[in-house]
Amino acid sequence: MSTLREYLAQKRRAWLSKQDTIATADVITPTAKVSAEGRSGVRRIRIRDHQVLSDSGPDYAGYDLGPSSPELQLGVLGSCVTHIFLIQAAAADLVLDSVEVEVTATIDPKAGTPGFEDVPPSPQDISYTVQIGSPASDEEIDALFAAVERACPILNLLTNPQTITGTVVRVPAQSEESAR
């Protein structure tokens, strides 16, 4: 099995190659489609040729067939931070032996209920801890961390206010017979 050091050498070659094309690259438009599945209510997330299931626990009539949406959001943040650590380490030609990111948050289930109308329903107090194994100096790791926090798209999405628009499109309802 190869090591993270070997992977970072490969990542550096890819990063260097990509630098040649960035100036002429087209804007990327990522898309995710999500549908609620029949009797289970499982949310099937489709991104490119990939699928991920999201579900709730039994307390929300779910079957615990996958992580909840807030859990996925924490995982997405952790995945992005990890990936950007690898990219920035490759760009700086830093050696890393391991990178592990843990993301935590709190959610108050009373949010929005009587007496708790001002409690936000969203995850709060989001934090992440990065454990790095590396022979690099503390100064190099500090510079790497700063570069990651500048470049991480999901971290910046969550820390900088965004405008999100939504639209509802009505489709024909099923008949009572076909809905059974």
The gist of it:
36% of the residues lie in helices and 18% in strands. By secondary structure, it is an alpha+beta fold.
Characterise the protein shown here:
- The protein is α+β, with helices and mostly antiparallel strands and 180 residues long.
- It has two domains: 1-26 and 68-161, GMP Synthetase, Chain A, domain 3, CATH 3.30.300; 31-66.
- Helix content is 36%, strand content 18%.
- It contains five helices and five strands, in the order H-E-E-E-H-E-E-H-H-H.
- The chain has helices at 4-19, 69-92, 138-151, 153-159, 176-179; strands at residues 33-36, 43-47, 50-54, 98-106, 124-133.
- The strands form two sheets. The protein has a three-stranded antiparallel β-sheet, with no helix packed on it.
- Helix 1 packs across helix 2 (69-92) and helix 2 crosses helix 3 (138-151).
- The protein is globular, with a radius of gyration of 21 Å.
- The N and C termini lie far apart (51 Å).
- The relative contact order is 0.12.
- The mean pLDDT is 92.
What is the string of helix and strand elements?
A: HEEEHEEHHH
CATH superfamily of the largest domain: K homology (KH) domain
Cα gyration radius (Å):
21 Å
Record the strand order, biggest sheet.
1-2-3
| Structural class determined from secondary elements | alpha+beta
CATH topology of the largest domain: GMP Synthetase, Chain A, domain 3
Largest sheet: 3 strands, antiparallel
Mean pLDDT: 92
| Number of spatially distinct domains | 2
User: How much β-strand is present in the residues?
Assistant: 15-25%
